[in-house]
Amino acid sequence: MFKLGLIINPLAGLGGSVALKGSDGVAQQALDKGAQPKANLRTQIALNEVVHLKDQVILLTCPGEMGETCAADLGFEFEMINLPVTTETSAHDTKCAAEIMKEKGVDLLLFAGGDGTARDICSVVEDEFPVLGVPAGVKIHSGVYGITPKASGEVLRMLINGELVDLKNQDVRDIDEEAFRNNQVSAKLYGEMLVPEAGQFVQSVKQGGMEQEDLVLEDMAAFLADEAQDDVLYLVGSGKTTQFYMDYIHADNTLLGVDAVFNNDVIANDLTEQKILELIEQYPNVKIIVSVIGGQGHVFGRGNQQLSAEVIKKVGRENLIILCTKSKLKQLDGRPLIVDTSDVELDKHLAGHIEILTGYNDKVLYPIQ
User: Fold this and answer.
1) Is 177 exposed, middle or buried (0-12, 13-18, 19+ CB in 10 A)?
2) pLDDT score, position 66
3) Distance in Å from the first CA to the final CA of the chain
4) Which end of the chain is more exposed for a tag (fewer CB within 10 A), N or C?
5) Dihedral (Cα; 308, 181, 116, 14), 10-degree rounding
6) In which element (H, E) is residue 119 found?
7) 2-197 — its CATH code?
8) pLDDT for the residue 210
């Protein structure tokens, strides 16, 4: 029997859709703004990959939304640890749960959250036994997560089936969210955890672009500006790559948010999902400009949750403009780009080959899944 520990941070990712850049210390504010919890849904996507193997699993989990609800909904038999949980869970709850799992002994600790959750678990577990994250947070810089919830489930399935899966130490990184909300990225290494790796299922640590890419980024910005259509609303995603475009058209930019540009003028900064949906109703022609996260290959689902599944469906695949330098694409070593919208059907619809702008009027077709 495979002994599986399960910890869910039910507040993970709440700040994404409402442009709070994270969830640490602002969960209630995010809920007040209309954010919808998705950590349990994303964990269900992962565990759906092993539901048919549940008779081979001894599941150890936490009360309520920290694991019990998800396990019960999927029909798993489970042992619930003795952990008092309040309505609003905390980092302390996560650490206590990890400590109990450590004492009881599990073959793998599966957890759902973001970099803050990984950091909390690392402070207790370090690299003493294998862990695997289900990506559910706003920030996913650490290398301890599957590239998608489904990918995390695939790795878990392989482990339960006794397939050969490498174990490697991976970095746990987190950023200062207060600085993040002020457009400053300050990442720090907090330790390493032992992570099962299989094929292309587990993501790399986030990598930044190289300084010599700046000329290419300026070329892309110039091409976007030259090709910009009149009376089209452009939703410009986060990151350094899109910042070059905003700087080129002399527009105020939210480095780590989503801005709206119409006829080369910024009409709104740092948009929430709800505000984006309202703008889509007002403007008949809308396009989304996003970049690729270096080293990981994510297009949606990492740091731009404001561009939600509902937003993407309303805008349409044909109106996506994806930016990436060729050097960043080469860093992927042939791995496809990733979309992780929490909507399985939309992810399937977006999959295939898609056009990537890599320079001035320079485009490539690249696989996306």
Assistant:
1) buried
2) 93
3) 33
4) N
5) -30
6) helix 115-125
7) 3.40.50.10330
8) 44
